[in-house]
Structures are given as C-alpha cells and as structure tokens.
Amino acid sequence: xxxxxxxxxxxxxxxxxxxxxxxxxxxxxxxxxxxxxxxxxxxxxxxxxxxxxxxxxxxxxxxxxxxxxxxxxxxxxxxxxxxxxxxxxxxxxxxxxxxxxxxxxxxxxxxxxxxxxxxxxxxxxxxxxxxxxxxxxxxxxxxxxxxxxxxxxxxxxxxxxxxxxxxxxxxxxxxxxxxxxxxxxxxxxxxxxxxxxxxxxxxxxxxxxxxxxxxxxxxxxxxxxxxxxxxxxxxxxxxxxxxxxxxxxxxxxxxxxxxxxxxxxxxxxxxxxxxxxxxxxxxxxxxxxxxxxxxxxxxxxxxxxxxxxxxxxxxxxxxxxxxxxxxxxxxxxxxxxxxxxxxxxxxxxxxxxxxxxxxxxxxxxxxxxxxxxxxxxxxxxxxxxxxxxxxxxxxxxxxxxxxxxxxxxxxxxxxxxxxxxxxxxxxxxxxxxxxxxxxxxxxxxxxxxxxxxxxxxxxxxxxxxxxxxxxxxxxxxxxxxxxxxxxxxxxxxxxxxxxxxxxxxxxxxxxxxxxxxxxxxxxxxxxxxxxxxxxxxxxxxxxxxxxxxxxxxxxxxxxxxxxxxxxxxxxxxxxxxxxxxxxxxxxxxxxxxxxxxxxxxxxxxxxxxxxxxxxxxxxxxxxxxxxxxxxxxxx
Length: 635
What we know:
It is a single chain. The protein has 16 helices and 27 strands. The protein has a seven-stranded mixed beta sheet with strand order 3-7-1-14-11-12-13, sandwiched between helices. The protein has a five-stranded mixed beta sheet with strand order 9-17-16-15-10. Strands 21-20-19-25 form a four-stranded mixed beta sheet.
C-alpha cells in the first residue's frame, strides 16, 4: 500500500494556544468573575470515622452576610459512585474519613464563610478507625458501610469484610507447576497513597438561571460526567444542567472521571446556588485540596513465582489488597487492573491471583495516571530482579528469557502481535552500556520493563462547522490541558478540507453545544477526538463536494479540495472557490455541518482477530545516592 501523502500532517507548526498558556492568558477557574457571586465553603469532618448524631446550623445562619447553610438534609436522598453507589454529596449518618464533606456555606465573603463554618455545631459519636487495608478485611473489623453487600463473585471460602470489589486471575494449574519449580521466590510489596498534586486546586462555580436551569463551571477533565452527576444528585433532567469548562492547571487524572470518583464540589456548589438563587463559587485551598480530593491508591501485593534453573518462569501466585479509601471511588477499576498486571507482561503459563479492593477510613481512590498500573509494575519488576539474584542470573538475560513473541499469550491478552518487549530491553541495555558500567561508591544501575492495557474504551464525538468564508469551527468534548487538541485537531481538519491550519478554531467544551465525550482521560485524546474529527471533516467535505459538483458539472468523486479551491482532479483550472460554495450553503441548506463519532470497540474487535499490538517499554538508569540525606541523583 502506497504511503499517504500529507500536506499538513507530519509538518512542524507553532503550537496553537501555546503562547496563551505560557503567559497565563486563558480563563482558569480562579479567573471567573460572575456578577453578584457568593463565596462558598465546605465543612469537613475532623473524624476519620464517626456517627453524625446531629448538626446545628442556627448560629451560622444568624451571621450577617450568610446566605445559605446546607447539610445532607437539604439535598435529595441520592447517593453516587463510579462502580458502587455508596456515597452522599454531603455525609449522611456517618463520616468515613477525615475530610468527608458534612455541610456547606454560601456567604458574601470568604471571611464570613470561614466564620460561619466554625459556628456549625456537629455532634459526632466516634467509631473505631481502620487504616490498614488487611485489618479492615478481617471479620472482627468494624463495618464501614452497613448497607453495602459483599461482591457476589468472591471465592466461596473467603471469610472477609469491607470488600467492595474482587477480581480473580486464573490460568493453568499454578499449584502443580509451583511444586515442580526448581526455585520459588515469595515476596510482599507495598505502595502508599499519593496525591497527584497539580498546581491548581479544584474550583467550581454555579448559577441558577432565570429559566430554572443550572450553569456550572468546572476545571474538570470530564465535563459530561459532571453534568450527569450534578443532574442525578439534584434530581434534575440533563437539559436543565449546562457545564462549561475553564482552562485546567494540571490534573494527572485527579480531576478526571467526573465527580463519581472526584471531589464532588460541583454538586455542592450547585446546591448552594439553588438555595440562594445567586451565583456561588467554591475554591479549595491547597490544604483542603490535599486532604479531600481523590488520590492514587495504596496497595499491598503478595507475589510468589516459581522458576526452573535455566530461568524459565513456570508459575505465579499472588494476592492484591487494594485500598479504595472511605468510598469505592475508582477503586474497583484500578484494583482490577492492578490484579491483572501483577501477572506481568512476561510468559506466565500458570497463574492464580486474587485481588481485593477494600474500604478503609482514608481518602478516596481516584484515577491517577495509569490507575492500578504503577503499583503492579513496582512489584513485578522488583520481583524480577529478586528472582534473577536468586538464580545468580543477569537481570537483562532473565527478562529476555521470558519475553513473549508474536502469537504468544500474556495475562489479559489472548494473542500478541508485533511484540516489542525484547527489542526495548536490548535497546535500553545497549544505550546504558549494561554489563560494562564501572560504578563508583553509592552508585547503582537498574533496568525495568512495563506494559499497559489495550482495548476498547469510551469514545467521543466531533462537529465540524464550515463558516461562510470557508473557515471552520470545531466542537469536541475534550478539554485541552496539554493533550494538544487545539493544534492537533486543526491539523487534521486542514488536511481533510484543504485549508490553512489557522483557519480552524477548536472551541472550549460546553455541554449544551459540544458533542458527548467520555473526557480527557486515559491518554486517549487524539485517538478518540482525532478520529472523530477526521470523520466529521470528511462528512463536511463530502457535503461541499456535492454542492460544488452541480456547478462544476462533475461527479463529487472526481473533485478534491486544495488551497481553498474545489477543483476537478487533474484539471486544476476547472475549479470553484471553497468560500463561494460555503457561502452558497448558508443560503441553501443553512450551513455545512459535519458529524463524526469514534470509539475503539471496532478496533478492539479487530485486534482480537489479528492479535493485540500491546505497547511495551523499558527504562534503564544509573543513579547515585547521598547516604547522608537519602537524595537520589540520576546520572
């Protein structure tokens, strides 16, 4: 197949929107200036686990300048959650972690908000706190969610408590293979919770419009999820909620997947706006952001591997105890992924791994960069080094010994094709001079591989509108905070419509006008929106060609668009300007609007037949450790 010739794609253009981002010209959440807006604030539990006996808001309401004080009693009796519906907008009956939102205030100034929050009297009855995820699984542990049943797929012999999700990985006969192994290495690895620590905290604003609709501003990665959840929690139809996005000052997944696994400040802000009939804005400070929003989960991973003397892996057994925090959040999905990945990306013919996602009295797990992956990768690769040391085998040689090739299976992937793992190992080892390095005192060298899942994920749409002058406005549901839609998308449109890149503008997300999209998550922005936009641009192009065909007395199939001219292929002189066709369209059909939608389901089905083109990576580094300070320097 001949290589496609592109005019725009593949060229290097100045990053559109880059200068504006560097100089801070964009409108971030903190820049919103809503007329007559009130300040909002949230009272958070100082107990990690406590029964809420009573809440007295009378003194707070009596303060001059306080416009509303709300608790769970003021909100619909509706819970939310990503996988399990286990959480209220404002804590009801119980507070389950230090930072759980209990009440909220709207007032004329931030100073009055702080004063009012101090005057809200909450009577708590302290309950036992469980912070260790394995302790919370014991039958003797306190029950954190009284009305949440255990997962139906738990092993029959599992005598556990406070488990919100279970994943089992079973391949072959690991017990038999382990018994036949020459060497067995059995280890435990643990990771701690980590906050993504983006510079810009969560911000939300809401206004009740004259017609009864809610407008919500959010610095969120998934605005359509925010719309869905605000509507659900406030018992409103979707057409009564409009979400507008501001620029985002970093997210790393921590502002992703809507409020179902996020900080839930948008519905609280909206509730205050409905009560006051005024615009309300909530800005978390850094301390509040750190203790209350979603984080990367900690995990304890038990991993046992059996190998032959020559380094061939024959079996792996393991267990993952994944800390979801006080509510299920993103835990079920991240924990399942961690469990699968504990099997590794090497040849592993016999595997049994149990994965438990459990509640604790800590912050809630969210989808932070590769949910579940970093935890498993740390355990798997550290374990590979341990096995190599036990065998007295070079870590690179040991990995290469167990590297899959095209046609092989690995955990979670039925069949592989285009396997690059061995190539990445050899390349990284060669570039760092593996085996030839002379290390000084306190220096070390390491190598580790990795892989990430492939498969179908949520999609998104695109709308390409051709203006009267031939310029184009694109609507997508993706938020731009480093994922390049503001210059990647214009390049795609320019290529398909034969116009300059600068003639294309990509609009910020407005759920009233933008097509639905699952959000700027999972490193899928250009995959989803790029393909959807290409399909929408082709749709728009076909409409333009059909209109031009009548004037040029030619078949649309014989026409092309180049340099803003629609012309007969091979006969450039026989042409008509794109501007005249676009202008005519406004008089004949209103305007040319192309639509496109893309998700990777079809691609994933095709991959099943052909085999997965799994992505692999290898990193190698030389480091030096200061033994006095513990500072690690990468050399």
